[in-house]
Amino acid sequence: MTITMNPVMRRLAAITALFHLLLVVQIPAANAAMIGTHEVIAEQQHKVDQQQLMAMLDDEQVKEKLVAMGVDREQVESRIASLTPAELAQFNQQLDQAPAGAGVVGIIVLFLVIFIITDMLCATNIFNFVKCINR
Predict the structure, then answer these.
(1) Distance of CA 43 to the CA centre of its chain
(2) pTM of the model
């Protein structure tokens, strides 16, 4: 005994199978990998370094210097947030090696260097004497 399929049902079955195949092909495969301890520690250290620099902005001497230079605190905070982990680590290492009281001067110098570099890259226009290199 043979069962014959209606041509309409055969087309419907073929279309359904095709849609099913297309849906299965589009599902991305899950990709899991182990995260090393070094990566986790580096990420946490970056956050700690940023928080330390932000805390240094609360120092009265730093506030006075920034006001004297005409630099807004929000600009400094955004620059600190944009520093790479390597730059932050290097700067914090320099602060740790500096004698007591020299940290304030180091912070001011760091901010000046950051502002000059961003002025040179045309990201800001804080100092009029710095010429943009992208123009």
Answers:
(1) 11
(2) 0.45
